[in-house]
Amino acid sequence: MNLKKKSAIFITLLVSLLLVISGCGAKAPTAAPAPADAGKEKIKVAFVYVGPVGDAGWSYAHDQGRKYLIEKMPQVETTIIESVPEGADSERVITQLAEKGNKIIFTTSFGYMDPTINVAKKYPDVTFMHNSGYKTADNVGTYFGRMYQARYLTGIVAGKTTKTNTIGYVAAMPIPEVIRGINAFTQGVRSVNPQAKVKVVWTNTWYDPAAEKDAAKSLLTNGADVIAQHQDTPGPMQAAEEAGKYGIGYNMDMSKMAPKAVLTSAVWNWGPYYVKTVESVINKTWKNDQYWGAMSDGIVDIAPYGPMVTDDTKKLVADAKDKIISGKWDVFTGPVKDQSGAVKVPEGQVMSDKDMLSFDWFVEGVDGTIPK
């Protein structure tokens, strides 16, 4: 091969090599960055309700909290199971939710306590939160709010409104939670109207619209002109409106269901607590605490007033609310007497949480008995 031909081949190879090197250094077109949540698996959270979410009461309030959770934490995927009976059936439902990969399960009725504990033993990697109970485990916490504080305030409204001095109270189950609410409400009533009585009728059900309404009717027939309730539906409020009387709602603002009757309602605000709890599980800071949030936390409050509530009554409630939120005074500050007139909490003392959580007696001013 002659020199010219060798030179031509060499130059051709050199040019090709330079082109290859240049191509390796070129930047290829870049794809748009993936969203921050792309590829992240959503955390699955489940809720078990004792009634339908359309009950306009207890389960509805919890479901509003669930919706708040989704709004604030879009990385969460939720499942709800409605109308789950307390007892063995609830244990089956809770087990199914754990099997389906839910990492946090909120069980929202007192009767789910033992089933929640039983299922938690089998699924140590799942966090369980039981509402209103008192049993915990390594992966089980409890949560509730000091609804008795809101009950006291609504009692003031009822005590200032009644003309017959007979206030009816439709009560679900004879457990400490319900008894505590009746007592706090009565303390509020008697703080402004010492002559008034709170007459209690038990339904032995959380959710039975007909039974709740009938119980309210019986109280109205027996002279009550204001009806309060610890029930999951607005049935008692509707009975009050139909009778031309007044009512105090519970769980949610029930004024839409009985606008001419509802003076105000003792209400729950679960959403912020659900967000805080899920965040703590994700951040691995969760602890199996027994949370009992105060009105100062915002978890309990009273709803806006109906137009029939006077400015004088509103002022009394506002003053009492300020005292409660300040922490300088609470509802069961002595002297507190039982139905017989015996002093149970001496003057200057405050009832302990332990005693409030195990209430099994009525305060002075309650007309009724506690079934065994």
UniProtKB/TrEMBL annotation:
Cleavable signal peptide: 1-26
Family matches, as PROSITE patterns: PROKAR_LIPOPROTEIN
InterPro entries xref list: ABC-Purine-Binding (IPR052910), PnrA-like (IPR003760)
One Pfam entry name: Bmp
Annotated Gene Ontology cellular component terms: plasma membrane
Domain ABC transporter substrate-binding protein PnrA-like: residue ranges: 42-326
UniProt keyword Signal present: yes
Keyword terms: Lipoprotein, Signal
Record protein name field: Putative ABC-type transport system, periplasmic component/surface lipoprotein
Source organism of the structure: Desulfosporosinus meridiei (strain ATCC BAA-275 / DSM 13257 / KCTC 12902 / NCIMB 13706 / S10)
